[in-house]
């Protein structure tokens, strides 16, 4: 199934993601996967752009491998909701 068009997130929220990435703080990330809400405690290892979309690399606090989440699929981080548009 093809992914939907990327919708840029707010610059302020993007800055917060970069702050969490630099500080290596473990945070609770709630995001969508196949239209289902998913939650993980993780360190945001990196925030980057690839193929016209922005992503966060999450390193879970348990034994799972790191994985990417498209930023417009994030619903909240540590209780702070995603705000759309830059």
Description:
By secondary structure, this protein is of the alpha+beta class. The protein has one domain (11-78): SH3 type barrels (Roll), CATH 2.30.30. It contains one helix and six strands. The chain has one helix at residues 11-23; strands spanning 26-33, 36-50, 53-60, 67-70, 74-77, 80-81. A six-stranded antiparallel beta sheet has the order 4-3-2-1-5-6. The longest helix has 13 residues, at 11-23. The protein is globular and about 30 Å long. The mean pLDDT is 93.
Topology:
Elements: H1 11-23, E1 26-33, E2 36-50, E3 53-60, E4 67-70, E5 74-77, E6 80-81
Antiparallel strand pairs: 1-2, 1-5, 2-3, 3-4, 5-6
CATH architecture: Roll
Q: Ranges with pLDDT <50 over ≥5 residues? A: none
What is the straight-line distance between the termini?
27 Å
CATH fold assignment: SH3 type barrels
Q: How does the overall form come out from the CA principal axes?
A: globular
Averaging pLDDT over every residue, what do you get?
A: 93
Q: Main sheet: which strands, in order across? A: 4-3-2-1-5-6
Number of strands: 6
Q: In terms of structural class, how would the helical and strand content be classed? A: alpha+beta
Largest sheet: 6 strands, antiparallel
Helix-residue proportion: 10-25%
Task: Report the total helices.
Answer: 1
Query: Which sequence of SSEs, written as H and E, runs from N to C?
Result: HEEEEEE
Strand content: over 45%
Return the domain count.
1
CATH class wording:
Mainly Beta
């Amino acid at each position: 199934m093809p992914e939907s068009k990327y919708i840029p997130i707010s610059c302020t929220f993007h800055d917060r993601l970069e702050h969490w990435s630099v500080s290596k703080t473990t945070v609770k990330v709630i995001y969508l996967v196949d239209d289902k809400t998913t939650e993980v405690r993780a360190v945001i290892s990196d925030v980057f752009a690839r193929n016209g979309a922005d992503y966060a690399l999450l390193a879970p606090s348990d034994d799972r491998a790191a994985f990417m989440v498209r930023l417009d699929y994030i619903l909240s981080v540590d209780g702070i909701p995603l705000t759309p548009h830059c």
